[in-house]
Amino acid sequence: MADHEAAAHRGSPAQDVGDFLQRRREQIAQRWADEALFRTVFTVSRDEAVEAGRAVVEALAAVAAADRTEDLGAPGFSAVREQLGRMAASRARSGATSVQIAHEVAALRPPVSELLAAESGATPAQAEERAVTLTALLGTLRLVVLETTLSEGQELIDRQRLQLLEVATPVIKLWTGVVAVPLIGTLDSARSQVVMESLLEAVVTQQARFAILDITGVPTVDSLVAQHLMKTVAAARLMGAECIVSGIRPAIAQTIVHLGIDLGSVLTRATLADALAYALHQQGSVIVDQVRTGASAQ
Question: Judging by DSSP bridges, how do beta strands 178-184 and 172-175 pair with one another?
Answer without folding.
Answer: antiparallel
